[in-house]
Amino acid sequence: MLENKKIVLGITGGIAAYKAAELTRALIKAGAEVRVVMTKSAMQFITPLTLQTLSQGQVYTEMFASTDQYDMAHIALADFADAFVVAPATGNVIGKIASGIADDLLTTAIMAQNKPTLICPAMNDKMLANPVVQDNIRKLRQFGYTVMESGVGELACKTSGSGRLPEIPEIVEAVASILTPKDFAGERVLITAGPTEEPLDPVRFITNLSSGKMGYALALAAHQRGAQVTLISGPTKLSPPPVKEIIFVRTALEMYHAVMDHYSKATVIIKAAAVADYRPISLASEKIKKDKGLTGIELTRNPDIIAEIGAKKKKGILVGFAMETQDLLANARQKLLKKNMDMIVANSLREAGAGFQTDTNIITIIDRNGKTVALDKMTKRNAAHRILDHIRTLSKKKGPSKKQ
Ligand code: PMT
């Protein structure tokens, strides 16, 4: 996710400083090279040696160290970094950055750089709510810094409220996000994800194996590339991505209505959900008892959501998925044409590492111009970016995407 990215991690003096050790590991695990800068107060909470061991590099603590120790550190750090992250960021450091005070290595290095910068506030809830701190956060956002929302929950001072350091995976995602070019800015992307459930009685339903991972990866990738994302999700166990709007549905009919309510505002629609084609014709209000002798379930067709959008669409990009067990590409091409899609992403149930539930997928992209791109096995996250890359090439040919 952060392969070959160079991150300067600034740690300031709050109790959440101990979590910076875990954050350093997570950034390195995601592929980044990390250089750590600690304020004097941070060193009261965690030692430079811990960070040096975890980051496998020099930990910078002194503004006025001799230059044989490091080479004009604040300038060298600015040159080195693709991005700066301050985590945890105390009210004090937020105030200093917002006011242009540079009185230690971290604040000086931040003043001396113009790289994407992520600030992760962590402090007592009353400190965070203080109007001066809130005003400083507003100022930082106006200056172009990305300031994360603090987590809500139990705080170190035994109170409960807003002020926790955001969770480490959320910080890593936010770092990926500030480093991602915003080539979907101005696009409104509607994505469906996950399975649908078609109830038979209050305890039983017909569903499929979709976990939602492919659709959620697309939602996150489009969000990180600057799109306003509406995610319409069937039931999943996944944490919701930080997109503009999420609508949870259960049945294919609910998904149909949610898509119909939102599709006209979208410039790109991606239908990654595995929608049930049929539903039980009647829904029993009480649990069906086995002694009643159930001999069959009568089914009726659900609406074909993508076919209906394809028939209505005038502008914008419509992307479908095809999940097949045989004749994958031929069936996918047929669906693309029949349902008036601009692009279809074919994945097979027969290949290991593709399709339902896995963290990887093996996809072939086919577009309306007949271009076919077969991709090797990759993470669903990377597959999502390749799908968005291909959408970008289509919308460039077509001109900026318009609403449907
Ligand atoms: O969720 P994961 O576990 O990560 O798995 C990902 C996935 C396998 C579900 C995903 O990659 C995928 O292939 N999704 C589409 C599965 C599917 O339903 O394929 P299909 O060939 O039956 O449908 C073709 C297209 O029509 C799809 O875009 C589907 O969303 C759409 N459709 C289908 C039926 C219906 N009633 N309405 C629809 O809009």
**What Rg, in angstroms, do the CA atoms define?**
25 Å
CATH superfamily of the largest domain: CoaB-like
The structural class is alpha/beta
Give the N-terminus to C-terminus distance in angstroms. 32 Å
Number of helical segments with 4 or more residues = 14
Strand tally, please? 22
Strand order of the largest sheet: 13-12-9-14-17-18-20-21
CATH architecture of the largest domain: 3-Layer(aba) Sandwich
Q: Beta-strand percentage?
A: 15-25%
Shape: elongated
List keywords for this structure.
2 domains; Rossmann fold; binds ligand PMT; 14 helices; 8-stranded mixed β-sheet; 404 residues
Secondary structure topology:
Blueprint: E1 6-11, H1 19-29, E2 33-38, H2 42-45, H3 48-55, E3 59-60, H4 73-80, E4 83-89, H5 91-99, H6 105-111, E5 117-121, H7 125-129, H8 131-142, E6 146-147, E7 151-154, E8 160-164, H9 168-179, E9 188-193, E10 198-201, E11 204-206, H10 213-224, E12 228-233, E13 245-248, H11 252-262, E14 268-271, E15 278-280, E16 299-301, H12 305-312, E17 317-324, H13 328-338, E18 343-348, E19 360-361, E20 363-367, E21 372-374, E22 378-379, H14 380-398
Parallel strand pairs: 1-2, 1-4, 2-3, 4-5, 5-6, 9-12, 9-14, 12-13, 14-17, 17-18
Antiparallel strand pairs: 7-8, 10-11, 15-16, 18-20, 19-22, 20-21
Helix pairs in contact: 1-3, 1-9, 4-6, 5-8, 10-14
The structure holds ligand PMT.
Residues 194, 210-214, 252, 271-275, 277, 302, 304-306, 320-323, 335, 347, 355-357 line the site of ligand PMT.
